[in-house]
Amino acid sequence: MRTILPLLVLASCGAAQRVQLTSPSGDLATRATVTVQFLVEGSTSLDVFLDDMRFARLEAPFTLVLDTASLTEGAHRVEGRTQGIRSVVLDRAAS
């Protein structure tokens, strides 16, 4: 006879994470470098995506100097993403 032990998985996440692009404050037309700044809460690093492709990883103060000379003319999307950290606790003795 086989004994089946119940498996309890607990997941928790730390502080809520928040990313806000603070500079530039709106749409921008330029041919020069652009300083892009983010306000980040709940994370120590930030992945910056340019047109949905990972472009850079930043740490505090979360500032990126973007040289636009290599970019094609037209609109481009800049996005900052943090990664959530989760702890998983396995308790096979729980009922």
Which descriptors apply to this entry?
52% strand; single chain; 95 residues; three-stranded antiparallel sheet; disordered N terminus; mainly beta
In short:
This protein has no helices and eight strands. It has strands spanning 8-13, 18-23, 33-41, 45-50, 53-59, 63-67, 78-81, 86-91.
Task: Summarize the topology.
Layout: E1 8-13, E2 18-23, E3 33-41, E4 45-50, E5 53-59, E6 63-67, E7 78-81, E8 86-91
Antiparallel strand pairs: 1-8, 2-3, 3-6, 4-5, 4-7
What is the first-to-last residue Cα distance?
19 Å
**H/I helix tally:** 0
- N-to-C SSE string, H for helix and E for strand: EEEEEEEE
Which secondary-structure class do the elements indicate?
Answer: mainly beta
What oligomeric state is this? single chain
The profile of the biggest β sheet is:
3 strands, antiparallel
**Number of beta strands:** 8
Shape: elongated
> What is the typical, i.e. mean, pLDDT?
75
Strand order across the largest sheet: 2-3-6
Q: What integer value in Å does the Rg equal?
A: 21 Å
Classify the helix fraction into a percent range. Answer: under 10%
Beta-strand content estimate = over 45%
Low-confidence stretches: 1-14
Report on the structure:
- The chain is mostly beta strands and 95 residues long.
- The chain contains no helices and eight strands.
- It has strands spanning 8-13, 18-23, 33-41, 45-50, 53-59, 63-67, 78-81, 86-91.
- The strands form three sheets. The chain has a three-stranded antiparallel β-sheet, with no helix packed on it.
- The radius of gyration is 21 Å and the shape is elongated.
- The relative contact order is 0.34.
